[in-house]
Design brief:
single chain, alpha/beta, Rossmann fold, about 35% helix
């Protein structure tokens, strides 16, 4: 199975490295993130992807809408790849890992060859660690992509493409 994993388009918060606070679920993408997402979408359109998944948080669904227009593929919303809620006292690191692992385990039961996933920093870091190492830990959470970076994983090999 080949994975195409990317973070939502740029937001005011991600651009200036500001904590989302009360806007964690409602933060919107900013205009400069749109062309980057369109370039990513054009690339994905040529990859014959079987399924597209996204976090239900607004910045991810807005990113998904841009990609859907170009790829003509619909995203499936899945809360298990939603933003971490550790900083809000609603979740633990192990909780993030467990729900991301549950998502990944279910995806692996499908007959997919290629899958695209739009998510957030820490869930992406957990996904990459789980796919490449079979496990994830707190120290893996520090390694997540900036907006506009596509992570491709196939046969345990990770490559990155920058659409910024």
């Amino acid at each position: 199975m080949k994975f195409y994993i990317f973070r939502h388009a740029e937001t005011y918060f991600s651009k200036f490295d500001i904590h989302y606070g009360e806007s964690v679920e409602s933060a919107e993408i900013i205009p400069e993130g749109i062309p980057v997402t369109e370039r990513l979408a054009k690339y994905l359109a040529g990859e014959d992807i079987d399924a597209y998944y996204t976090s239900p948080f607004k910045r991810c669904t807005q990113t998904a809408e841009i990609i859907e227009k170009i790829t003509k593929m619909k995203f499936i919303k899945d809360a298990r790849i939603g933003e971490e809620m550790i900083n809000y006292g609603k979740e633990t690191f192990n909780g993030v890992i467990d729900r991301v692992k549950d998502f990944l385990d279910q995806i692996k039961t499908k007959n997919f060859q290629r899958i695209a996933i739009c998510s957030h920093g820490w869930p992406i870091a957990a996904l990459v660690a789980l796919i490449t190492k079979g496990k994830a830990a707190r120290n893996d959470f520090d390694d997540f992509p900036a907006c506009g970076i596509l992570i491709e994983i196939e046969n345990g090999i990770v490559s990155k493409k920058d659409f910024n």
